[in-house]
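Take a record:
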Amino acid sequence: RPYPASGRGRVRQGTYFFCPGSVGLLPVPPFSPYALHPPVTETGRGECGMATIRLSQTRGESNDRFHVRVDYEGDGARHSAAAVVSLDMSEQDHRDIRWYLEDYLEAAYEPEREIAAKIEHRMHELGEALFQATFQGSEDARDLWATARSQLAETRIEILTSVTDAAALPWELLRDPRTDQPLALGASEFVRVQSQ
């Protein structure tokens, strides 16, 4: 049975989420208990008052470059930063990750385990590269993450993308190199939201 990103948070209906145990990105059906979530207020905080990190992704000058606006709100603090993300992710990377998340668990035997270990290493690299580009690319981004890091377990992370660009960047792999922790598993909630 799939779980929300952190194993304890709730996920917005109609979006996708990452499942622990490498099940992958799965749609949240309307009848899922995980479709329930605290309403988000105009301040970006849910009814439970948790902090929010919002990553708003828009296409840049080329198909492999994206502008990402990062907004953080929590404990009365508001921070914003901008990043340009160009992740070196090949079509083979996309195929490998899709195989790992969708097919590997059904055939987790040799030589698949050896192949899976290489893909896990690549996913680790991609997650750290995405983190570096997003949270370490400017002084504003570094300040934002320094404020948000200690509150991650009580933070909701929202990924805003268009439908066409939803799979362009693997945000679920986002990983802090300092803690070696995927943000999707450390945050209270990790959700994808369709931008208007």
